[in-house]
Amino acid sequence: MNIRFSYKIKFVCLVILTLMSYRLLGQDSARIVNDITQLNPIKVNAIIRPTTTEEIVNAVKSNPGPISIGGGRYSMGGQTATENALQIDMRAFNRVLFFSKKDKEITVQTGITWRKLQEYIDTANLAVKIMQSYSNFTVGGALSVNAHGRYVGQGPIILSVKRIKVVLANGDVVEASPFENSNLFYGAIGGYGGLGVITEATLFLTDNCKVERLDTLMQTDEYKQYFFEKIRNDSLIIFHNADMYPNRYNKIRAVSYRVTRKALTVPYRIKPLQKSYSFNRFMYSIISESPSGKWIREHIVDPIIYAGKTVEWRNYEAGSNVEELEPKSRKRSTYVLEEYFVPVDSFKSFYPSMVTILKKNKVNVINISIRSAKQDPGSLLAWARTAEFSFVIYYKQGTRAVDKEKVKNWTRQLIDEVIKNNGAYYLPYQIHATPDQFARAYPNAPKFFQLKKQLDPTNKFRNKLWDAYYKQ
């Protein structure tokens, strides 16, 4: 054989093999499901993006399992996927199905984002009753984790839900409410996709209104009394939270938005989407990495931000974009959340212990937001078993194995402490709790698991959360 021809054949074969490997790599990467932290890449068998209920029903019927369900993927511990699953990506399942301005209610496909829902109802001067602080998340994701926000006198999102529809493991589409199939209603909301696919939700709405921002700086020890005297029973306050300043944790800035008739200082009805949040990212990098970053935030940045009076629409304040928190890269370090709930009377016993654990473990805390929530009406995996204070810890960690191990250690310490105070930790975050800690924080989990065995006997609906704690 001609030597030059032989080299050509080898070269062509090499090119073909290279192209095939790139194609396979592309196929593999296309089947990797991750969350916002980028800490939990999970390879699934296939991903579908349904737009109709029929597509979801057919997928559930035809796939023996496992099946996992994802929306915006803002949970942080693999709650939306498991290995070798059929991943149902709900983000194209996002239509408004029914809306009544008169009755103040809306029915949506659950892949819709809060932002899109807000844009729809704002023209009728209506607002969402309960949602997270950021509007990027999907309605279905919020229902799955039984989310909450900064709404005074409110609590978990289940309190604003009229009814839902769920595709079960056998393909049946079942409607559930507090009065019909209530076991499914109280199991699926806050059930992290373990019972089926929540495909539709009818939500109660409320009036949009103008709100004025008010803020007060105080000692951390003073906050509980301040909340009870000034905030808890003021029916005109819509949003409220208190930011605890690290690294000393002895100061709190309490921020409220109260109904007002004053003239607007912000012209927009909903927050415009920005092309870039580079300034926000720069500030978070300074706060998290500079030795004086946290002092700069407390004594320079926040006083500037909170100077003057702000009057805006309720929908504007509820329309923040999570992109403002997104770093330039999550390769070496990443921003993560954890959240802990304690009965209101346990405020002064829990927070000093929390601070001690964070300081002892040198956790790079950026902010701790304190919020309130009323008692859950009966969801099986309720995190608010009484009226609660929540402590939302926003921190930065490295992505190496040693960094992950450190986080697991101090997280378990905090979980032990919150359980001592008759509280709970929130499940959408990294899955560090031991099975015993999970069982103590969620004492009704056996009832949820019993319902799962009844509705999903082959354990079709799975993710990393239920892989960790659900044993058939």
How would you describe this structure to a colleague?
Helix content is 33%, strand content 24%. It is of the alpha+beta class and 472 residues long. Strands 15-12-14-13-17-18-16-19 form an eight-stranded antiparallel beta sheet. Strand 6 and strand 7 form a beta hairpin. The chain starts with a helix and ends with a helix.
Low-confidence stretches: 1-5, 10-27
β-strand percent reads: 15-25%
Mean of the pLDDT scores? 93
- Radius of gyration from the alpha-carbon trace, in angstroms: 24 Å
Query: Which class best fits the helix and strand makeup?
Result: alpha+beta
**Structural shape:** globular
User: Which strand order does the major sheet show?
Assistant: 15-12-14-13-17-18-16-19
End-to-end distance, in Å?
Answer: 64 Å
Beta strand count: 19
Share of helix, binned: 25-40%
Question: Can you lay out the helices and strands and say which pair or pack?
Answer:
Layout (H helix, E strand, L loop, with lengths): L2 H28 L1 E2 L8 E2 L2 E3 L4 H10 L4 E4 L15 E4 L6 E5 L4 E5 L4 H9 L3 E3 L10 H7 L15 E7 L5 E4 L5 H7 L8 E11 L2 E10 L3 H9 L5 E8 L6 E9 L18 H12 L3 H13 L5 E3 H4 L15 E11 L3 H14 L3 E10 L14 E11 L2 H20 L3 E2 L9 H7 L3 H11 L8 H6 L3
Parallel strand pairs: 3-5, 4-5
Antiparallel strand pairs: 1-2, 6-7, 7-11, 8-11, 9-10, 9-11, 12-14, 12-15, 13-14, 13-17, 16-18, 16-19, 17-18
What features would you highlight for this structure?
14 helices, 19 strands, eight-stranded antiparallel sheet
